[in-house]
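Example record used in the benchmark description.
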Amino acid sequence: MKILITGAASGIGQGLAIRLARPGQDLVLGDCCSEGLDATRRLCEAQGATVRSRVIDTRDRQGMAEWIHEESSVRLDMVFACAGITGGLPPAGAAVPTPEREDHARLMIETNLLGSLNTLFPAIDVMKKQARDQNGRRGQICMMASVAGFVSYPGTPSYSASKAALDRFTVATAPTLEKSGITLTSVCCGFIDTPMVKRNRFPMPGLVSTEDAVRQILRGTLRGRRRVTFPKWLVLGARLADLLPPRLTELYYCRQPSAQPAGMPDY
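Model output (structure tokens):
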């Protein structure tokens, strides 16, 4: 079995790679951070896996397509699109509150949404040409969205928007893609104890360990679920809050430390 993972230098991507590493397992790992990627590769090879890694930015559409096709000359069984970034509002520097910077918003959208699509479409192209396995599948693809996609959070506008778009696109595309023998799963989780959130200096309700997150993601993806969500109570709360009038939810959201200028570390 060959499995491709983006964002493999740290966090969930690294956790998935290490969990899947075993003798006879082919792993294809990508990330823009060479040091972290090398560390993941060594850990996986120590567990007996065969690993090929590439330092690559998922925003590079052509480079991603060439890489995925190159690494899938025989077969590609699973893909985990884990590459992503986060960040909040800039520090207060004027009498009038400053919105999210344009360059920051564009970087967020390009990485979290377009970078994920740059992973998805080449993977679909490869998998559609493969023979079905004993379960009738040609492949499985997992996209890393977020619970943040269920809310319009003032502290992270482009992050919420990018994850909302990714989740909706994934879930809406899944039934059509399934007819081709490819299952598509969206993961909408809360705070995961990864390097991405280590710099946060505010309460993170429902913080989940990377190991627990990896278990839930793998279980849901292997079962071919449309959407994997956890913690359940946080997801339910986010969905209920999104049903309320925006000005009402703002009364709560805008008082949170993470919604203040520089409340969340910038990328």
